[in-house]
Amino acid sequence: MSKELGAVLAKKMGVSAEEQLAGFLNGLLQGRAQTAEEIAPRGAVPCSDQSSAITGQSINVDGGVAFY
């Protein structure tokens, strides 16, 4: 999550940026944020020949949290 978004959310919630980030991380089933190395390969698969039979799917690489 970007620092800018975290700061906006913290302000709207009336908490510090550190408290907002801790609350966000506590909401992840994995208990930690995902790295670019974990996320990037999942984005490349739909663009490759490996997914030639896959249509209309959503691949969530979110550590077990959903934003609605």
Lay out the secondary structure:
Blueprint lengths: L2 H11 L3 H10 L9 H9 L24
Helix pairs in contact: 1-2
Gross morphology = elongated
End-to-end Cα distance? 15 Å
Number of strands: 0
Tell me the β content.
under 5%
Order of helices and strands: HHH
* Overall average residue pLDDT: 83
Contiguous helical run count: 3
State the major sheet.
Answer: none
Rg, please? 15 Å
Question: Which blocks of ≥5 consecutive residues have pLDDT under 50?
Answer: none
What structural category characterises the helix and strand content? mainly alpha
Helix content: 40-55%
Highlighted features:
68 residues, mainly alpha, 0% strand, elongated
Structure characterization notes:
The protein is mainly alpha-helical and 68 residues long. It is 44% helix and 0% strand. α1 (3-13) crosses α2. The protein is elongated, with a radius of gyration of 15 Å.
In short:
With 68 residues, the chain is mostly helical. The protein contains 3 helices and no strands.
